[in-house]
Design brief:
The protein has 2 domains: about 200 residues, no CATH class; about 180 residues, no CATH class. The chain is about 50% helix and about 20% strand. Helix 8 runs parallel beside helix 11. The radius of gyration is 33 Å and the shape is elongated.
Length: about 400
């Protein structure tokens, strides 16, 4: 038989057994839809988390800090050595100061971080609202959302445009008592009015101040340095060179790799739940194909008696089950996508009522969508293989006498 004839015979079930065929396809679609829904949720959570904690620059950045023993100082001389290393494209230091912020009649203890705009970018810090630090306006500052609460402002967005003055406490000595506490601070009352231009979500009472506005403090020791490398291949060599100096080195890319490994495990677990639904659907399709074989036994006998080959009979059943599997895959993709959108809308609706931000919890890579449709067709092929083999071995005489 020609291929077109086999195809026409394979799609007859839509006319002869419409309800049963559609229900079988629906069952396969539910299984595929469950897999797409659950795995897309895993991909969506992974994508949302990584987008919030990373930028392209942060994945090429190393975090450098002093060792606990403090034998090697992270000062301007060390920064010069790091800048001179091959593979280093940018170095951005920061230092922390104990400070007291004043806004109106209110004062609060705050950790002031003196840094450059590039430090926040290399650290993957994304503004929740407003804008980041800018070299053109060194008196602008960025706060965390918890700082707003210190000044009695529940909505951090209302802090944008407010002015804050600071009292800085600069350690003049590094005398350390038995509890590890430093003493002998020099109090400096800054007259600069710093303007809040943006904020980020955070539980720490931290204010980011442009280091250019703190040059009068003459800070030479830094608490942390962001070192951007030219490429991923240079990161390992640069890391080894910095470690050789006695400093500590870590990177956000290590955290991202660990997070990806965890999400891969989560995706596999979610997929297993979907596979359970798919197995149930496959059993239903196998049952449908078996019933179709029993109903068409006499027809098979007639086809064989007029010259149909065993291979042609087998292909007819296999094509029929593969088509149902393929259509079930397409329907499952559609159901999974619609279900994800409805679920995402419901979550965002609830979040908006509590003042949260809208997020996209579902993400389906194109390769995964194509793979799952192909997998559905393959499952259909497998469920039709056994009935096809049985159909090809039917004796024409026995089939013609079958009732």
């Amino acid at each position: 038989m020609k291929f077109i004839d086999l195809f026409k015979l394979s799609i007859r079930m839509f006319k002869a057994r419409t309800s049963r065929t559609l229900l079988t396809i629906l069952g396969m679609g539910i299984g595929i839809g469950a897999i797409l829904f659950l795995v897309s949720l895993g991909y969506g959570l992974q994508k949302t988390l990584l987008e919030r904690i990373t930028t392209s620059d942060s994945l090429l950045t190393l975090d450098v800090s002093e060792a606990k023993a403090g034998l090697v100082a992270l000062d301007n001389d060390m920064l010069s050595k790091i800048k001179a290393m091959s593979g280093v494209s940018e170095v951005s230091p920061s230092f922390q100061l104990t400070a007291q912020g004043h806004m109106g009649n209110l004062s609060a203890d705050i950790v002031a971080v003196g840094t450059e705009p590039s430090y926040l970018e290399l650290g993957g810090v994304k503004m929740t609202a407003g804008q980041s630090l800018d070299d053109k306006n060194p008196d602008d500052i960025v706060i965390t959302s918890s700082v707003a609460q210190l000044f009695g402002v529940q909505d951090p967005h209302q802090m944008i445009g407010k002015e804050i003055t600071f009292t800085f406490y600069i350690p003049t000595k590094t005398n350390t008592d038995q509890d590890g506490l430093q003493s002998n601070f020099n109090r400096i009352d800054s007259q600069t009015k710093y303007k809040v231009v943006g904020y980020i979500d955070g539980q720490d009472n931290t204010v980011y101040i442009h280091s250019a506005s703190l040059t009068d403090l003459k800070i030479n020791d830094y608490s942390a340095v962001k070192v951007k490398c030219d490429s991923q291949t240079d990161m390992a060599a640069v890391r080894d060179k910095i470690l050789a100096t006695g400093l500590l080195v870590s990177s956000l890319s290590d955290t991202v790799d660990q997070a990806n490994q965890i999400f891969h495990v989560i995706q596999i677990i979610l997929m297993l739940f979907g596979v359970i639904a798919l197995v149930v659907s496959a059993i239903g399709m196998f049952n449908t194909m078996t019933i179709a074989l029993l109903e068409r036994t006499e027809e098979i006998g007639i086809m064989k008696s007029i010259g149909a080959s065993d291979i042609g009979i087998s292909l007819m059943f296999i094509m029929e089950s593969a088509i149902m599997g393929f259509l079930g895959g397409l329907g499952g993709v559609l159901m999974g996508f619609i279900g994800g959108q409805i679920f995402n809308f419901g979550i965002n609706f609830i979040a908006s009522r509590f003042g949260g931000q809208a997020v996209s919890l579902f993400y389906s890579p194109l390769w995964f969508v194509l793979a799952i449709v192909g997998f559905a067709a393959f499952v259909g092929f497998l469920t039709g293989f056994v009935p096809a083999q049985r159909a090809s071995k039917i004796d024409p005489l026995d089939a013609l006498r079958y009732k």
